[in-house]
Design brief:
The structure is a single chain. β7 and β8 form a beta hairpin. α2 (19-26) crosses α3 (30-44), α7 (154-168) crosses α9 (242-263) and α7 crosses α10 (266-274). The strands form 3 sheets. Strands 3-4-5-9-8-7-6 form a 7-stranded mixed beta sheet, with helices on both faces. By secondary structure, it is α+β, with helices and mostly antiparallel strands. The protein folds into 3 domains: 3-57, Winged helix-like DNA-binding domain superfamily/Winged helix DNA-binding domain (Arc Repressor Mutant, subunit A); 67-274, Bira Bifunctional Protein, Domain 2 (BirA Bifunctional Protein, domain 2); 282-325, SH3 type barrels. 31% of the residues lie in helices and 27% in strands. The protein is globular, with a radius of gyration of 21 Å. The N and C termini lie far apart (52 Å). Bound molecules: biotin (BTN). Biotin (BTN) binds next to α6, β5, β8 and β9.
């Protein structure tokens, strides 16, 4: 553990720590402590409160991501089957990180997590708010033998893994909005960004990016321009730890992706539809500056959204499309 990480883990209880005590524990001078505290601001965007006579503290307690803890929580059969999980303190985007590393050496199943993203990316060119230690920023790389065109259901399947995770951990009332938002009472709890590449006839490389709001202080939510929520505000979600959530997410993603790889999207389609909060409802579908109004008629075997208008039922694919209740 380097000094900065050690300092962070001392401060992670959210309590006051005197400069003297920190200096002694870290084996550095008071000026050295001050320098390290400054680095927490510069490198991680963390606010450190300081009061003369009391010392330093973080505004909230933090549970840092911990690979050993995540491994303890994973089922034994998975532990040997997946590559070592990578945890970064700060990165531009966990998706971009895996995409840049995407060489033949990158093993299918590789996972990367970060405490903070400086350029977290959302769908349709949006920014994903990613302050330090607050939420889960997760990416997994998978290689599929199939062609990219056969993978259209994969992004829906990944959303199902998030729902399964939350339900397994006791969070009820979560649902899906096509193509892959996770909602609670119409407010966004998690978003997924899937990036697919590969030769026309396969194999395909997929990076599955998941952003899950665990505890997003409202002063950090800044420019989020849609209703959002975090697990702290949801019954059953308030006490879940990030390490527990990550372990369960890894397990559920592995399960649905293995199933998708063997059997395709069809057997998972019904499970998806039972969680689709707008199925059968009036919706607006927006593509750039064009909007159509229709009735949501479920999803087809490729994961495309079926919308009924006066002209009949048409299938729409994810990408740049966005759905809203009418
Ligand atoms: C969306 O709903 O617009 C998708 C949000 C996806 C955010 C996650 S956070 C981890 C991964 N890295 C990124 O840059 N984006 C995804």
């Amino acid at each position: 553990m380097n000094r900065r990480t050690k300092l962070l883990s001392l401060l992670s209880d959210g309590g006051w720590h005197s400069g003297e005590a920190l200096a002694e524990t870290l084996g550095i001078s008071r000026a050295g402590v001050w320098k390290q505290l400054d680095q927490l601001k510069v490198k991680y965007g963390l606010q450190v409160h300081s009061v003369r006579g009391r010392g330093y503290r973080l505004p909230n307690s933090l549970e840092l991501l911990d690979r050993a803890r995540i491994n303890e929580l994973l089922p034994a059969h998975l532990l040997g089957a997946i590559p070592q999980i990578e945890i970064l303190d700060s990165v531009e985007s966990t998706n971009s990180y895996l995409m840049e590393k995407m060489t033949p050496q990158l093993v299918s199943g590789q996972i990367c997590l970060a405490e903070r993203q400086t350029g977290g990316r959302g769908r349709r060119g949006r920014h994903w708010v990613s302050p330090f230690g607050s939420n889960i920023y997760f990416s997994m790389y998978r290689r599929f033998a199939m062609a990219p065109a056969e993978l259209s259901g994969v992004s829906l399947v990944a959303g199902l893994a998030v729902i399964n995770t939350l339900k397994q951990l006791g969070v009820e009332g979560v649902g899906l909005k096509w193509p892959n938002d996770v909602l609670y009472n119409g407010r966004k709890l998690a978003g997924l960004l899937l990036e697919v590449s590969g030769e026309q006839s396969g194999p395909s490389n997929v990076v599955i990016g998941i952003g899950l709001n665990v505890h997003l202080p409202s002063e950090q939510a800044g420019d989020i321009n849609q209703p959002w929520i975090d697990l702290k505000q949801i019954p059953g979600g308030e006490l879940l730890t990030r390490n527990q959530l990550v372990a369960s997410l890894v397990e559920n993603l592995q399960t649905v992706m293995d199933r998708f790889e063997k059997e395709g999207f069809e057997p998972l389609r019904l499970g998806w539809r039972t969680h689709d909060v707008y199925d059968g409802k009036d919706i607006l579908l927006q593509f750039g500056d064009r909007t159509i109004k229709g009735i949501h008629r479920g999803i087809d075997e490729t994961g495309a959204l079926l919308v009924e208008t006066a002209e009949g039922v048409k299938a729409y694919h994810g990408g740049e499309v966005s759905l809203r209740p009418a």
